Amino acid sequence: MKRNVFYSFQFEKDVLRVQQIRNMGVIDGDEPVSPNRWEEIRRTDEGVKRWITENLQRKTCLVVLIGEKTAASKWVRFEIAKAWELGIPVVGVRIHNLKCPRAGVGVYGVNPFNSLTLKRANGTVYTPKVYDPSAHDAYGIIKANLAGWIETAIRERA
Predict the structure, then answer these.
(1) Do 103 and 131 touch, CB atoms closer than 8 A?
(2) Are the CB atoms for 105 and 13 separated by under 8 Å?
(3) Do the bridges between strand 130-131 and strand 90-94 make them parallel or antiparallel, or are there none, so unpaired?
(4) H helices present in 60-102, as ranges
(5) Separation CA 143–CA 116 (nearest Å)
(6) What is the mean pLDDT of residues 12-37?
(7) Alpha helical stretches, state H, 2-137
(8) How far is CA 80 from CA 4, 16, 93, 103, in A?
(9) CATH classification (class only), 4-157
(10) 3-class SS shares of the chain: helix, strand, coil, % to 5
(11) Separation CA 18–CA 2 (nearest Å)
(12) Cα distance between the two ends of the chain
C-alpha cells in the first residue's frame, strides 16, 4: 500500500533533490504547488499556515527531507509541530548526498528535530528517526527504503 505523505523541505536549496524523490514513485507525495498559486498563498503567514494545515490533514506521514538549510526554515519547523499536533507520524531523511543537477552533492545540515520538543500524550518526549543514506548510492538507498522508513514512523507514532 502506497502511503500519502507530506514532504517538508527548504525549497531554495533542495527543490531539485526533492523532485528526484517525488519521481521515484515509491510513495504518493504531495504535488508541487504551481508558482502562481504559491505566490498567492505566501502573501501572508496566515495563508501559509492555513495551506500547510489543510494539506497535512489528508496525509499519513510527514517526511522531512533534510538538507543544508532545512533546520533554519520557520515553515519546516511549523510543519513538524503541526503534523505532530494532528497525530501525524514524522520521519527525517537526509538528502545532501542526492546529486542535484545544478549544484552536485549538498552540504550536511543541522537536524531540524534538535530544536523542537515533540511530546507523546503520556508526556514522554519523542525524537523522530533520521536516516542518512550514504553518498555511494543515496538515490538507490532512498528508493529502496523510504516506504519502510515511513512504516516504521507510523508504527512508532501509534
Answers:
(1) no
(2) no
(3) parallel
(4) 74-85
(5) 28
(6) 79
(7) 11-22, 35-41, 45-56, 74-85
(8) 16, 21, 13, 27
(9) alpha beta
(10) 45, 15, 40
(11) 18
(12) 18
Q: Which residue has the cell 498559486?
A: 37
The C-alpha atoms of residue 20 and residue 107 are separated, in whole angstroms, by: 17
pLDDT at 35: 65
Distance CA 125, CA 140 (A): 32
List, for residues 71-82, the tens digit of each pLDDT value.
999 999 999 999
In this structure, the chain runs to a length of: 158
Is the CA virtual torsion 20, 23, 25, 30 positive or negative? positive
| Domain residue limits, the chain | 4-157
CA 112 to chain centre: 10
Give the mean pLDDT of 89-101. Answer: 93
Mean of per-residue pLDDT scores for the chain: 90
Q: How far apart are CA 62 and CA 127, in angstroms?
A: 14
104 torsion bin: left (phi>0), alpha (psi -120 to 50), beta (else): left
Q: Angle at CA 118, nearest 5°, toward 76 and 21?
A: 40
